[in-house]
Amino acid sequence: MVTDILFVLWNNANLDVICCGQKDSSGQPDPLVFAELEMLILVINAHKQKTKGYAQKIIIMNVVFDYLCIVKKLGFVFLFLGVFALGQDHLSGFNMMSFTYKMDPKWMAYVELQTRARRDYTVIDYYETKGGIGYNLNKNNQAFVGLGRYGTYEKMKISQEEFRLWLQYTFTQRFGRLKLDHRGRAEHRFFYASQTGEHTEANRFRYRLSATLPINKPKVQEETFFMNAFEELFFGPKDPNFKRNRTFAGFGYQFNHTLSATTGYMFQREFSTKGNDNFHFLYFALNFTIDGTDDEKDIVIPMVD
After folding, report:
1. From CA 158, how far away is CA 195, in angstroms rounded?
2. N or C: which end of the chain has fewer CB within 10 A?
3. Per the structure, how many domains does the chain have?
4. Average pLDDT of 226-244?
5. Do 52 and 166 fall within a single domain?
6. Together in a domain, 156 and 283
7. Under a CB-based contact definition with an 8 Å cutoff, are residues 103 and 120 in contact?
8. CATH number, residue 166
């Protein structure tokens, strides 16, 4: 029996060498291949020790690593097909963590941290740190003022830094369980090109229509599954006037009054006179909310921003 397992593991290890290659996308030795070989050695030791339970654990580990390798192969296949079919397309990563503090029914504070892997989903090349203060005019209208710092990297070196100020207004509509948010934002952006020392400024305007739909409860409360989606448009005074559009669809779970998790897919198209770029973001977010007020709970889920 163990001999058969060794034969299967050895074939899998060789198959991974052929399919995955011995190097990853950065040119380094592929850790999944080495993991297969290490497990092969462990199974040999288990056979020598005649410890059946130990060998079973190794088999389970092998299944997990096989799954990871398959996912990796499929990711590179889809990336290759996307680049081949659509030109400047990128499989990208988008990670976010947000903190919302509701001081009273009218006032709230918000902080958000982001990392993105834009050109290569395995390499982080962008970050955001931002926050602001919001005021609820009434149940369906909110004004917000925010500021943030943003950094873009090229070849592991900072290439552009940005400081941003913005004003925004959000109008909320409810149709049964479905909640719609219309958000408008005006931004003033200060850029610094680290490599050339050049300082520039720009204005940008955004409109986002977003929807949140709780699945198993009338509102997003503790232990609630939900779906969310949005479409956002970006405009500016300089050519091209239509700067960017984003389309997102995802789902998540509100664990309790404090913590929720969201994952999904976002398509982002960047418009430029030099040519357009398409980004296919795989999105994941953790959202923390601190709400000590006594008003009726209807937790707001932060979306891609």
Report:
1. 8
2. N
3. 2
4. 96
5. no
6. yes
7. no
8. 2.40.160
Query: Of the residues 86, 106, 126, which one is the last residue of a structural domain?
Result: 86
Angle 31-49/2-20 helices, nearest 10 degrees?
170
Contact 109, 299 (CB under 8 A): no
Task: Give domain status of residue 296, yes or no.
Answer: no
What pLDDT shows up at residue 13?
Answer: 41
DSSP state of 139: T
Cis peptide leading into residue 240 (ω within 30°): yes
Tokens representing 120?
């290569």
Choose the weakest-confidence range: 2-6, 50-54, 97-101, 286-290. 2-6
Residues 100 and 58 in one domain: no
Instruction: Write the DSSP symbol of residue 274.
Output: T
Predicted model pTM: 0.71
SS percent in the chain: helix, strand, coil, step 5: 25, 50, 25
Length of the chain in terms of residues written? 305
Tokens of 192: 């610094």
| Structural domain that includes position 50 | 2-86
Average pLDDT (83-104) is 81
